[in-house]
Amino acid sequence: MIRKAADLKTEIRDKMRGGPGAVTIHHFFGKPEFTANVRLCARLVLPPGAGIGEHKHEGEDEVYIVTRGCGILDDGTTKTRVSAGDAILTGNGGSHAVTNDGTDDLEMIAVIMCYAAQTTRQG
For the segment 58-87, what is each residue's pLDDT rounded down to a tens digit? Predict the structure, then answer.
């Protein structure tokens, strides 16, 4: 399946997970389109000053791949600068937050994979 950039479903989440500002989410594919246990597959755009608040991943793993810009990733114990080309993996009950403290948009590919089998499928 190919989905053209112009056809991506886009949403804006204000104060995502309690973070500052608004995050734009461009969904590559939705959960019902996967046969694997994937909850999210999207490009996230955080403008300067925006962030995703601290949250945990119980029963799932999340991968961020930074494709543009830079920011601060807080894993609950350490704050680390991340920039284009960096990859972040969290899960197994681990928490994290990310904030764009730069002057350009911070863009990341995000994929969330669930451990347990999906119980419902649509479409």
Answer: 899 999 999 999 999 999 899 999 999 999
Residues with Cβ within 8 Å of residue 109, at least 6 apart in sequence: 42, 43, 44, 63, 64, 65, 67
Concatenated DSSP letters for 13-31? EETGGG-SSEEEEEEEE-G
pTM of the model: 0.90
Amino acid code (one letter) for 69: G
The C-alpha atoms of residue 60 and residue 112 are separated, in whole angstroms, by: 7
Query: Domains (ranges, CATH) in the chain?
Result: 5-114 (2.60.120.10)
CA-CA distance, 58 to 24, in Å (whole number)?
Answer: 24
What is the chain's mean pLDDT, rounded?
Answer: 93
